[in-house]
UniProtKB/TrEMBL annotation:
Residues 1-313 form the Carbohydrate kinase PfkB domain. Keywords: Kinase, Transferase. Gene3D superfamilies: 3.40.1190.20. GO terms for molecular function: kinase activity. InterPro entries: Carb_kinase_PfkB-like (IPR052700), PfkB_dom (IPR011611), Ribokinase-like (IPR029056). Signal peptide: none annotated. This is 2-dehydro-3-deoxygluconokinase. CDD domains: KdgK. SUPFAM superfamilies: Ribokinase-like. It comes from the Bacteria.
């Protein structure tokens, strides 16, 4: 299998039990996770050699995050140790018409204040097949943005395929700042992943789709996919298409374009949603595995969509599913019967 490297911040998620609101909570569950860490766990579950690159404090709270990755087979040798804190975020799980809510407490985390000297990216990218990052990493600080660029440059020197999940977060930066940083990083990217908001807020491409109204017709994405491909020279442009009927009920599919053909996946009706945090990351992990192992872009996309549909049924940030489980769903087995 492939050597896959991801770079980013792993945080500790603090969540009330069940669907409790923050103000009701008397205790919080600690759940490690973060965009690129979630992808690393996914590809490790699929049998790849997954490496997560970050910086965490030397103390025991930092070790919680390291241990969580090791538990699921992710190689942590390139995690620098130092700094003062692990980023936190609080997540309240919504239901029906009440949306989920996230509150960040991640300022001045170790990775946000990391220096280029903390990482030897040429050594890290040696022998790698794939490098993945997301727009969250350069958003957390200017220093992290500089480290992301260094990692991308090293990946290109070593002939590594680079993917990005645009992953716009309005609580971390403005669209103007995102566009100024992200567009300059697209020169290193082979596979661009993002939804309609990401493409608009990070790159300035707006699809013809009524997202708030739940109308995500794939045809509305064709022109911006072509425009993105032409401007940045991507090998693939990919978008998830989420229909949000409520916090507990979503429609889920995706679209991929390779410069010649568009492929739209089958649609999944997901109800009830157990936990949608990490849903996009599970899609990215599934897509990376699919593009590395499947014969066609359509097969790769179907694997990714099925993987992310399954993630919505699993508590926590990590997608804890096997290749066999994903392929069973992608093949049409949706009855949920007990496996004996």
């Amino acid at each position: 299998m492939a050597k896959i490297v991801t770079l980013g911040e792993i945080m500790l998620r603090l969540s009330p039990k069940g669907n409790d609101r923050f103000v009701q909570a008397e205790q919080f569950r600690i759940i490690p996770g973060g965009g690129e860490a979630n992808v690393a766990v996914s590809v490790a579950n699929y049998g790849h050699d997954a490496y997560f690159v970050s910086k965490l404090p030397k103390h025991e709270i930092g070790q919680i995050a390291v241990n969580a990755l090791r538990r699921y087979g992710v190689n942590t040798q390139y995690i620098a140790r130092g700094g003062d804190r692990v980023g936190l975020y609080y997540a309240e799980t919504g239901a029906a018409m009440r949306p989920s809510k996230v509150i960040y407490d991640r300022a001045h985390s170790s990775i946000a204040e990391a220096d280029a000297s903390d990482f030897d990216f040429d050594a890290i990218m040696e022998g790698a097949d794939w490098f993945h990052w997301s727009g969250i990493t350069p958003a957390i600080s200017d220093k992290a943005a500089g480290i992301t660029k260094l990692a991308c440059e090293a990946a290109k020197r070593h002939g590594v395929t680079v993917s990005v999940d645009l992953n716009y977060r309005k609580k971390l930066w403005t669209s103007e700042k995102a566009i100024s940083v992200m567009r300059s990083l697209m020169q290193y990217v082979d596979v661009c992943i993002g939804n309609e908001e990401d493409a608009h807020m990070c790159l300035g491409f707006k699809p013809d789709a009524d997202v708030e109204g739940g109308k995500t017709d794939a045809a509305g994405y064709y022109n911006i996919f072509k425009g993105m491909m032409k401007e940045f020279g991507f090998k693939y442009v990919v978008s998830t298409l989420r229909e949000s009927f409520s916090a507990s009920h979503n429609g889920w599919k995706a679209l991929i374009y390779d410069g010649n053909d568009f492929y739209e996946s089958k649609r999944y009706d997901i109800e009830p949603i157990i936990d949608r945090v990490g849903g996009g990351d599970s899609f990215s992990g599934g897509l990376i595995h699919g593009l590395l192992t499947k014969k066609t872009q359509g097969e790769a996309l179907e694997f990714a969509v099925a993987a992310s549909a399954l993630k919505h049924t699993i508590p926590g940030d990590f997608n804890q599913v096997s290749v066999e489980e994903v392929e069973s769903l992608a093949g049409g087995n949706t009855n949920g019967r007990v496996q004996r």
